[in-house]
Amino acid sequence: xxxxxxxxxxxxxxxxxxxxSACAQNPPFTGKAYVExxxxxxxxxxxxxxxxxxxxxxxxxxxxAVSVHFSYPYAASFDSLLNKYDKxxxxxxxxxxxxxxLDNLSADLKFYNTIIVQLSDADVTNPLIINFINYxxxxxxxxxxxxxxxxxxxxxxxxxxxxxxxxxxxxxxxLCSAQVIFGGIAIARKMEKSYSPLYxxxxxxxxxxxxxxxxxxEEAGINxxxxxxxxxxxxxxxxxQATPGCVVLVARDGKVIFNKAYGYHTYDKALPDKxxxxxxxxxxxxxxxxxxxxxxxxxxxxLSIDSTLGVYLPDTRKTNKxxxxxxxxxxxxxxxxxxxxxxxxVKPADHSVDSSADFPTKVxxxxxxxxDYFHNVMWPEILNSPLxxxxxxxxxxxxxxxxxxxVETITAMPENVFVQQNFYTPLxxxxxxxxxxxxxxxxxxxxxxxxxxxxxxxxxxxxxxPTAALMGGVAGHAGLFASANDLAILYQMMLNRGTYGGVEYxxxxxxxxxxxKQSPVSRRGLGFDRWDPERDHxxxxxxxxxxxxxxxxxxxxxxxxxxxxxxxxxxLSNRVNPRVGSMLSSLNIRPRIQDVVYQAILKGL
Length: 605
What we know:
Blueprint: H1 2-19, H2 31-43, E1 45-48, E2 65-69, H3 75-82, E3 88-92, H4 102-108, E4 114-120, H5 127-137, E5 141-147, H6 150-155, E6 163-166, H7 173-182, E7 213-214, H8 229-239, E8 245-252, E9 255-263, E10 279-280, H9 285-299, H10 309-312, H11 326-330, E11 351-352, E12 361-364, E13 367-369, H12 373-383, H13 398-411, H14 415-427, E14 433-434, E15 450-451, E16 457-458, H15 466-470, E17 480-482, H16 484-495, E18 499-500, E19 503-504, H17 508-515, E20 529-530, E21 549-553, E22 557-562, E23 567-573, H18 583-586, H19 589-603
Parallel strand pairs: 2-3, 2-4, 4-5, 5-6, 7-9
Antiparallel strand pairs: 1-6, 8-9, 8-23, 10-17, 11-13, 12-13, 14-17, 15-16, 18-19, 20-21, 21-22, 22-23
C-alpha cells in the first residue's frame, strides 16, 4: 500500500516536471492529488536558523548562486525550480571523489557568494560534507535544504546556517523547498515538538510569499482538464502554418499554473520550442521597457506627463513637436505619423559588409550602418515629420522612439542599460534584454523573418523591426527579447501594483494611473493598450474584464494582465517566420487561447 502511494506521487512529480519544462503534451496526472500532497509537504516543512533573514533570498542582482547535491535523488527537480527564479548553477558533489576532493569543490565555487546544499539522511553522517558546509559558511552564504527524518536534523549542529527542513519523504518535497528558498511558497508552521536542545518545540521562522509559485491549475481553483482547449488552438495554429511554434503561460493568484511549449523554431522542425526559448517581443517592448522606465522616472519626479517634449529635448524646441505633452505621446494622440522610411531609404554609402569606426552599428550579419546614422538621418526625419491627427488616436512607433530619447536624456543612460539594471536583473529575469546575441547562443533564440529583400538573412537574434534594426537593436518601440517566464515575473510585479520579491519598483498609484483608460477618444492607457469597450471587437478576448491591460507584438506575441481575475496571460510566437503572414490574427489564435483560460476560471474545479 505504501509503495503504491509513493508510486502515485512519483507519477505526479514526473508530470509536474513535464508540465513546467519543454513539453509536447499535458501532464498525465490528477491535479488534486498533487495539491493534496503539496499541502502535506508544506505542513512538514520548517525554516530554522534564519536569524539573518537570508531566506527567502533577496537582492537577486547581487546573487551568484550554486546548488550542490550529493545523494539526494530528486536534485534535478530541485534545481529546475530554483532556476525559475534566478540562475543557480548545479554542482554534483559526487564528482569530487578520489583525486578531486570537496576542497577542490570549494575552490571551484570561489566566484559564487551563495551555496545551496541539498542533504539527505545519508549525507548528514558524512564528515567530509559537514566540513565542506562548515568551511564555506564562514565565508559565504550557505543554505541547507534538508530532506530526511528528525535524526538527520539532530545530526546538523549548525545553529547559524539556515535550514529548510522537510521531514516528509516525498518527491514533491524538492519542488516546495526550492520555492521556499526564493519566496514562491511561504513558511507558516513552527515545530510542534522538541528534537534536541538546539531544535525545540515552537521554534521555526515564518516567511511570506513574495514571488511567483509554480504549481498545477487546481491550486488556483481551475480544473486542468478545462485548459486542454489551449492545446487544440495552439495545434490549429501550427497546422495552418500561422506560426512554426509558440509558448503559452498562464499565472493566476500569483501562481504559474500553465506553461507549455508547442511546435518548432522553424517549419523544418529541427529545433523544438522550449519554455526557456527567447522571443523577439516586437511592440511589447513599448510597455516592457520604455513604459516601465517612464513610470519609474515619474515616481522619482524626474518626469512629468503634463510637461512638453521641449522641456526634455532641446532638439524639438524649433519644431512642431515642441509643445506636445508627454501624455499625448504615451496615448498615441500626439498626431505622429506611424513610422518613418527605414531600410529602403538607406543609401549604398550608408552601410558596409564589415565593421569599422566609420560603420559601427551592426544591423545583422554582414550589415553595418555608418556612424551616427540615427542622429544624422533618422532623428531629423522624425523631428521634421508632420503632425496630421493631433488629438486623435493614431498608433505610432515614433511615440516610443521619442520617449526613448526623453528617458535617456533624463537618466544619461542608454535605455537597455537602465531597464536591465533597474528591472530585469533585480527581478530575476534571466533572458530579458536587448541585443540577446551578446549573451545567448542563436539556438536559444527563436528566429523571425527570412529577409531576402533588405538584410538577406534569417533574422535570428537580430530585431525584426526595421526601424529598431537601424537603431542598432535598441529602440523604445521594439528590440526587447525575453522568455515567457521572464515576462510572467515582470507582469506579476505589475499585477502586484509595482511590488515583487519584497521590493517596490513602481508605486501602486502609478501602476493604477498608467494602466487606466486615459482619453475619451481611445481605449489606451499611458503606454499600455487596454480592453476595448466595443464588445464586437472582443479585444483582447471576449471574456476579458474592462480592467485588462497589456500589449501585442507584430512578431506574434502578447501579454495581458486582468486584475479582476488576478490573471497574467502570455503568448509568444514567431508568426513572421519565414515571412510575414496574417493567419495568426485571422484565426484569432491569441484571443481564443485567452478565452479558454477565462472559461476554465469560470467553470472552476
